Amino acid sequence: MKITVLALFIFVGTAFATESYSQAMKVTVMADNIPMAKVINEIEKQTDYLFVYDMNEVNLKQNVKLNAQNKSVADVLNIMFKGTDIHYAMKGTNIMLMKGINNEISLQQIHKITGIVKDENGEPIIGANVSVKNQKTIGAITDMNGRFTIDVPVNAVLQVTYIGYIPQEINIGNKKTVNIFLKEDNKTLDEVVVVGYGVQKKVNVIGAVETVKADQIADKPVTSIVSALTGEAAGVTIKQSSGQPGANQGSVRIRGIGTWGDASPLVLVDGISMSLDDVIPSEVESVSILKDASSAAIYGSRAANGVILITTKKGKAGKVSFSYSGNIALQRATRVPEMASSWQYAEMYNQMMVNEGQSPIFSEEKIKRLKNGTGNPDLGEANTDWYKELLRIAPQHNHQISIQGGGERFTYMIATGYSDQKGVIPSTAFNRYNLRINTTSQLTSWLKLDLNMTYLNSLRKEAARGGATDAYRRAGRALPYLPVKFSDGTWSYNTYPTNPVRRVSGDYGSVKNYNDAVSVLVAPEIKILDGLIVKGNFAYESNTYRDKSFEKTVVYDSFEQAGQAATTEENRNKQIDKWSQYRNITANALISYEKTIGKHSLSAMVGTSLETFKYAFTEASRMDFPNNDFSEINAGDPTTASANGNSTYAALASAFGRIGYNFKEKYLVEFTARYDGSSKFAKGNRWGFFPSASLGWRISEETFFQPLTAYVSNLKFRMSYGLLGNQKISNYQYYSLIGNGGNYMYDDKIQMGYAESKMGNELITWESSKNFNIGIDFGLFDNRLSGTFDWYKKRTSDILLQLKTPDLLGIDAPIENAGIIENQGWDLTLNWQSRIGKDFKYKIGMVLSDVKNKVIDLKGYKSPTSDLTARIEGQPLDAIFGYKTLGICENQADYDKYQKQMKTFNPKWGIGDIIIEDLYEDGKIDANDKTVIGNSIPRYTFGINLGFDYKNWDFSCFFQGVGKADGYITYEAIQGLNGGGVNSPRKEHYEKTFNPSNPQPGAYFPRTLKSTYNFDNMSHWIQNASYVRLKNLQIGHTFNVKGFNKFRVYLSGENLFTITKFMTWDPETPVGSRTSYPHISIYSVGVNLIF
Question: In the record, which residues are listed under signal peptide (predicted)?
Fold first, then answer.
C-alpha cells in the first residue's frame, strides 16, 4: 500500500465525495487465491484511488478469488469484501477501510458531524483534538469557539482529548450535532516523563527528575532556551552574563559545582549531544533535567554535572495544522552606571591633586564653564555621558512557522524560522535561520522509523580590536569633558581609552562569526513481541565555524592634559581567518522489555553505545594591506603571513542497562549501571563502572492512608544512591608534548630547538561523584497543590588539578587526580492551580533551592594570593579571597591607632584611606593577612510564576532571583579617578567619596589618589548581591477569528526591573562583570496563530 505525504494532505484536508467517479472508473483484476492487499495494490496501480486503513484493525492477509473484467471499483470491492467484516467508504479518490459487522458501507453512511467542546463551566475549549476511535486519519481540532466539523461513519465513536482534561468518548449513532463537556483532570500520575533512553510513567519515577513542559516556555518571546529555562527548575542555577546578540547566553549548573574543570551538564536533544545555544525554544516539547545518580547514571561518565534531555515536537495524525509565532521588540541596556558630569570630574581631579600634595589642574573659571554649559567642547569643555552616547535602543524580530499532520502510517512536523537581533551597542548583531524536519513512519505493524533533521545557519557581528565589551568598558573611563566629535566632524580622543563610540562605528574594522550546524537522527524501533522492543539511534552532528576578522588601519591622537603631551599613533591593518569544525557521530542500540503479571510489573533495558568526536582548527593571518577596502587575506603582505592549526579526536564506548520492578505501583525499585571506556585516558585507566540504585514507596496507595486521600491525593517517598563519572577534560592529557623553540647552533647553522612543553600523566582517570538523594513527591486537595522536595549530598573525588612542582623542573606539573569537592543542598517545587467562579482560572508556581559547596581536599595545592577567587580546603570553591577591612580612617584618632601597621602596606597611607585588619597580628600588613572574605556561589535561588486566564484574556509574570550572594565590585566601579585619572568617576563616587578637606562620616569610597593601594582585594568592596528580578511580564488576548483555531496577540516585557542593593553592575554576575556586555530589557509585541 502506498501512503504519501500528498495523499495525507488530500485525505484529511480536501477530500470530497464523487460517487460517479467510482462508477465510471473501470478496472480489471484477475486473482486466484491471493491476499486482498495485492488486489488493493493493483487497483491503486490502475486508478488514482488511494486506500487508507489501520493495519492492526483491518485484515488484508485473507486470500480471495476474483475474475473482474472492466468492472467498477465499487463492484470489485463489494465482491471482495462480501462475507467479511471489512467496511469501505469512498471520499473523492480516497477509499477508507474499516472493521465492522456489515459487509459494506455505502457512501450515504458517511455523514457530517458538527459540535462544540466546552469545559465544566460552559467555556469553549480551543484546540481540543476530536477523532474517530480506531481511525486516526479522521480528525479535527476545535476552533476559537470550541467548534468542530468532522465526517464520520454511522455509529462511530468520537474521542475528544485536551491537555489537562479527562478524555471522553461519545457514541454518535445518527446524531448530526453534539455538545461535549470535558472535566478537568487534576490527576497527573499517568503522565509520562522522558528519562535516559526512554520514558516512564510519572508515578513510577523514583529519581530526582525535573520536567519543564512546552507550555511553560512556549509564549516567552526569547530566542534562547537558556533564557526560557531560567528560574523554571529547582536545583538549576543559570547565570546570564551578557546581553550581546548571539553570544553564549549563560552558564547552567545543576546542584552546584563539582569540579574546577568544565561543570556544564550533558545536553541531549532527541538523543543528539548539542549546545543549548543551538536549541530553538518553539521547537521544544519537553525538557527533563536529571539531577541525581538514579536518573543520570544511565549516562555514566558524562553525567557528573547532571543531564538535560530535550525532546522536540513531533507530528500528530489528523488534519494538517499550521502555526506561526512571531514578535517584534525593542531592547535597551539595564543597570547602566550614572556617570559624574564634567564639572564634577574636574572638582574630583583637583581634590586628587591636593591629596597628592600638588596643585589643582582645572581652574575655577573652567569648572564654572563646565557647570553652566558655556564652554567650548573643542577645547575640552564638553559634558559627555559616554554610556548614553555609546548605547542605543535596538530592534529585534523573531518568526517561527511550523506545519504538522499525517495519518495512521506517517506523521510529520516541519518548523522553520528566522531571528534578527541588533545589539544595544552599535556594530553588534546576530541573525539565524533554522529548519527542523521530524517524521515518524509506521512502515509495518512491527517496524517504526523516526527521522529528524535540523539545520542552523547564523552570523554574529561585532567590532574588531576588542569588540563591544571593550568599548563598554572604555565608556566607563572616557573623559567627560571631551565631545564624541569635534565641531569639524573629526573624532575626539582620550589619553588612555580611545574613543569608545568610534571603536564601534566601523572605523576599527569588523569581526564576523559564521556557523553552520547540521544534525541527522535515524531511530528505528522494532516490536518483537508484546513488551519486547529493539531500538536503534544513529546520529550525526556537525558544526562548522568561520571567523573573519579585519582590523583596519586607524590613526588616532591623544588629548593634551595634566601636563601630558598629545601624541599621534597609527596601527597596522590585519586580517585573521579562522576555520574550525566539530563532528560528533553516535550509534546506540538497545533492547527493552516490559511485562505486567497481576500486581507485579517488571521493566528491563540493556544497550550499547559508541560515540566519536573530531575537532579540526585552522588559522591564517596577514598584515599591511594596501588599504582598508582589501579584506581578503591574499591581499596582505606575504612576509607577515602566519598560520596555525590542529585537530583532535576522541571516542567513548559504553554498555548500559536498567532494571525496574514495582508492586501495584506502590513499592518501586530500580537499578541502573553503565560501563564506559574513554580515549581521553591511557589504556590501563580507560574503563569505569557507574552503578546506581533507587527505592520508592507510594504511601498514598496504602490501605491505612485512604482516610487521608481526600486531602492528600498523592504521597511518594524516594531514595537513591549512585556513582557518576566525569571525563570533561582536554584530549591527550596523558601524553607529554614536545614544542619548538630555543634555537641553537650546530654545524655552523641555526637549528630549530625542541623541548618538552607539557608533562603527561598516564595514571589520570575518571573524576567520580558519589550521590545520595532522598525526596518526596506530593499532591494535596485533588492535586490542585502539588510539589516535590529533595535533599542531596554529592561528593566528587579524584578531581583533576595541577599541583605545585619545584621551579628547577623548568616545566609545569602534569594534571593528576587529587581534589575532593562536596555539594550539599535541597530543592523545592510547588504548584497550585484552581479557579474562582466560572471565568477566572489562576496558577501559582515556585521553585526554590540551596546548595552549600565545600572544598574537602587539595593535596597541598594553593591558589596564588593575588587572585580574587581562591581554592582553599574547608571553603567554598572559588571563595572570594582578600584582606578584611575595618572601614575608612576618618580622623586623627584612627590614624594614630593604625598608621604603624598600615604604612608597612602603603607608605603614604593616611586619613581617608581604608584600614586593613592585621589578622596575622605581626604588626604589618602583607599576604599573610589575606583570608576568605566572601562566597561567589549564590544561595537560595528561586523563581515564582504567577498566571491567570479570564475569558479570552491571559496574564503571566515571572520573578527570579537569589536570596543570598556576595558580590565584588571592581575596577571602574570602585576606582573613580584613582590611578592617575585613567578612570572616569560615577555620580556615586562624587557623592560618597571621603574628602579629607571636608570629612563626611560614613563615606563609602576612600579619598581620591593616583595610587591604587585602596583597591587591592578587600572585604570593603564586598556587597550584598541578592536580588529579585521581574524576568517576564506578559498580557495576551485571544480573538475569535474565522478560519483560525487560535489567534492570540500579546504584549511582553523581559527583565523589566531589578530590586537589589548591589552597586552598579548587574547582580546576576556579581563577580567580575565589569567586562561584560550590558544586560538588556526587551519590550515586545507578538502573535500566536494556529490554523
Answer: 1-17
What average pLDDT does this structure show over 605-619? 94
Given the DSSP bridges, would you call strands 532-551 and 509-529 parallel, antiparallel or unpaired? antiparallel
d(CA 878, CA 261): 12
What residues form DSSP beta bridges with 951?
none
For 5-105, give the CATH class.
alpha beta
Point out the least confidently predicted range of 225-239, 484-498, 557-571.
557-571
Nearest to 810 by CA among 859, 763, 756: 756
Please tell me the distance from the alpha carbon of residue 422 to that of residue 223, in angstroms, as a whole number: 13
* CB-based contact 257:799 (threshold 8 Å): no
The secondary structure of residue 56, as a DSSP letter, is T
DSSP string, 711-732: TEEEEEEEEEEEEEEE--S-TT
Cell numbers for 206, please give them.
Answer: 523514583
Burial class, 310, CB count within 10 angstroms (exposed 0-12 / middle 13-18 / buried 19+): buried
> pLDDT per residue over 441-456, tens digit each?
999 889 999 999 999 9
Closest by alpha carbon to 961, among 1024, 1035, 1022?
1024
Q: How far apart are CA 883 and CA 594, in angstroms?
A: 62
Q: If phi over 0 gives left and psi between -120 and 50 gives alpha, with beta otherwise, what is residue 640?
A: alpha
Residues 6+ apart with CB under 8 A from 312: 269, 270, 283, 284, 285, 436, 438, 452
How far apart are alpha carbons 718 and 776 in whole angstroms?
Answer: 6
Is the pLDDT confidence value at 106 over 70? no
* Residues contacting 905, CB < 8 A, separation 6+: 916, 924, 925, 926, 1013
Summarize the confidence of residues 369-393 as an average pLDDT: 93
- How far is residue 79's CA from residue 77's CA, in Å, rounded to a whole number? 5
Per-residue HEC secondary structure of 872-899 comes to CCCCCCCEEEEECEEEECCCHHHHHHHH
DSSP of 817-835:
EEEEEEEEEEEEEEEEEEE
Distance CA 294, CA 693 (A): 6
- The pTM assigned to this predicted structure is 0.80
The terminus-to-terminus CA distance of the chain in angstroms comes to: 30
H/E run at residue 587: strand 574-597
Question: What is the percentage of the chain residues whose pLDDT exceeds 90?
Answer: 45
Whether the Cβ atoms of residue 1006 and residue 979 lie closer than 8 Å to each other: no
List every span in the chain annotated with CATH 3.55.50.30.
5-105
What b-and-e string marks burial along 701-733, b requiring 16 or more CB atoms within 10 Å of the CB? beeeeeeeeeebbbbbebbbbbbbbbbbbeeeb
Delimiting residues of CATH 2.60.40.4130 domain(s) in the chain: 110-181
Asked: is 110-181 a CATH 2.60.40.4130 domain? The reply is: yes
pLDDT of residue 249: 66
β strands within 189-246, DSSP E: 192-195, 198-201, 209-213, 236-239
**Cα separation values, 1074 from 140, 423, 462, Å:** 55, 18, 19
The answer to whether 575 and 550 are in contact (CB under 8 A) is yes
When pLDDT is cut at 50, 70 and 90, the band that residue 103 belongs to is very low
Using 50, 70 and 90 to split pLDDT, how confident is the model at 997?
A: confident
CA distances from 235 to 202, 935, 942, 1091 (A): 19, 18, 9, 38
Radius of gyration over every alpha carbon of the chain, rounded to an integer in angstroms: 35
Classify the phi-psi angles of 210: left when phi > 0, otherwise alpha if psi is within -120 to 50, otherwise beta.
beta
CB 862 within 8 A of CB 881: no
Range scoring the smallest mean pLDDT among 335-344, 589-598, 742-751, 796-805: 742-751
What's the grid cell of residue 430?
Answer: 546576530
